[in-house]
Design brief:
By secondary structure, the protein is mainly alpha-helical. It folds into 2 domains: about 130 residues, Orthogonal Bundle (Cytochrome Bc1 Complex, Chain D, domain 2), CATH 1.10.760.10; about 120 residues, Cytochrome c-like domain (Cytochrome Bc1 Complex, Chain D, domain 2, Orthogonal Bundle), CATH 1.10.760. About 40% of the residues lie in helices and about 5% in strands. It contains 12 helices and 4 strands; from the N terminus they run αααββααααααβαβαα. The strands form 2 sheets. The chain has a two-stranded antiparallel ribbon with strand order 1-2. A two-stranded antiparallel ribbon has the order 3-4. A hairpin with a 3-residue loop joins strand 1 and strand 2. The longest helix has 24 residues. It is globular, with a radius of gyration of 22 Å. The structure holds heme C (2 copies). One heme C binds next to helix 11.
Length: about 325
């Protein structure tokens, strides 16, 4: 009896499973999968490092300062504020779902999250530290020495372990179960009529040529300003990495997941509202001027891409010891 029921249950699951996959497969956007295969001990350690401002020269700036997980993984300002209140050159993209990206940074200069994570600690305009000093700080904190030993099995902390742990934590920062994903997975009443019409416009106008896949972006580099040039603060974009002039003004297509939370928009953070961003995209990328109503529907659709935000207890960081090098918040 029990086995028979189990078999029926399995058959039903298998059937539903295929139906779900087929429904999602015919759309250019796929639902986000919850994080799988993460090392939980490493995630906990990486979470602490992500929130630890002692990895910065000032002792004041952590990853979370610019990628605030209470605010969609961004800082919600046009360009970031770094060490000594320096104004950064470019808008901070969200860390949410960044594990789905083809590469990291607007110009894709880091291949993956691990490579990316070493950058900001040593960037003079961001955390302004050195990897050696960051390791000295961690090695002086007994709580960290214990935890690194548990996770990596050695008494000696190095930058490779630090970036590995941060990247592992970042893998958990995905946002499944948005209303749009529920719709993709078969819940037909998850979207309103306006939102569905917005999605249809998004597809039929050609937005999906660049914003597609699980991340609704993040998987290719494209020119900003195909039909009309972008008038904002332009940098070289992808050409800075490839040295190829054809890649000028090419940027990694940003993910549109949680886009309602990640304002202001574009690499220079010049536009604050989705209404403006959709208008700019329509005109510059597709040569299309949307009516007010069309624009509002696309915006309504974009807002259905907000998923479940990562939930966890705020990590409590191990205290410094008498030997911990002191922060230098005001220069020196
Ligand atoms: C002072 C602000 C600041 C701090 C601190 C900071 N970042 Fe960033 N982060 C940025 C900016 C700005 C960019 C975009 C830079 C670029 O593309 O050239 C970025 C890019 C990224 C990206 C790439 C996302 C994408 O879609 O390309 C990831 C991932 C990331 N940061 C993670 C981290 C981690 C992990 C830390 C801590 C070790 C950190 N950041 C610290 C501002 C900051
Ligand atoms: C040819 C490729 C392409 C097409 C087509 C395209 N986009 Fe984009 N989209 C991009 C790129 C590249 C960026 C980043 C540009 C930058 O920051 O300079 C972007 C940025 C955005 C942003 C800002 C996201 C952020 O976090 O800054 C929104 C919103 C957006 N697109 C929506 C749309 C909509 C809606 C359409 C259809 C009307 C569309 N896009 C069509 C490539 C494209």
């Amino acid at each position: 009896m029990k086995t028979k029921l189990t078999r029926i249950a399995l058959a039903v699951t298998a059937l539903l499973g295929t139906a779900v996959i087929q429904a999602a497969d015919t759309e250019p956007i796929q639902p986000i999968k919850p994080p799988a295969n993460v090392n939980l001990g490493m995630v906990e350690l990486g979470k602490k490092l992500y929130f630890d401002p002692r990895l910065s020269k000032s002792g004041f700036i952590s990853c979370n300062s610019c990628h605030n997980l209470s605010m969609g993984g961004t800082d919600n300002i046009p360009t970031s504020i770094g060490d000594k209140w320096q104004q950064g050159p470019i808008n901070a993209p969200t860390v949410l779902n960044s594990s789905l990206n083809v590469a990291q940074f607007w110009d894709g200069r880091a291949a993956d999250l691990k490579e990316q994570a070493g950058g900001p600690i040593a960037n003079p305009g961001e955390m302004a530290f050195t990897h050696t000093l960051a390791i000295d700080v961690l090695q002086s904190i007994p709580g960290y020495v214990r935890e690194f030993k548990q996770v990596f099995g050695t008494d000696k902390i190095d930058i490779d372990q630090v970036t590995t742990a941060i990247a592992e934590f970042e893998k958990t920062l995905v946002t499944p179960n948005s209303r749009f994903d529920q719709w993709l997975l078969g819940k037909k009443d998850a979207l309103t009529k306006d939102e569905l019409e917005g999605y249809k416009l998004f597809k039929d106008s050609g937005c999906v040529a660049c914003h597609n896949g699980e991340g609704v972006g993040g998987n290719s580099f494209q020119k900003m300003g195909i039909v009309e040039p972008y008038k904002g603060n332009t940098s070289d974009g992808r050409a800075a990495v490839t040295g190829n002039d054809a890649d000028r003004f090419n940027y990694k297509v940003p993910t549109l997941r949680n886009v309602e939370m990640t304002y202001p928009y574009f690499h220079d953070g010049a536009y604050w509202t989705l209404t403006e961003a959709v208008d700019v995209m329509g005109r510059l990328q597709l040569g299309k001027k949307f009516t007010k109503e069309e624009n509002a529907r696309i915006v309504a659709f974009l807002k259905t891409l907000t998923g479940e935000q990562p939930k966890f207890l705020l990590p409590i960081l191990p205290p410094s010891s008498d030997k911990t090098p002191r922060p230098t918040p005001f220069g020196k």
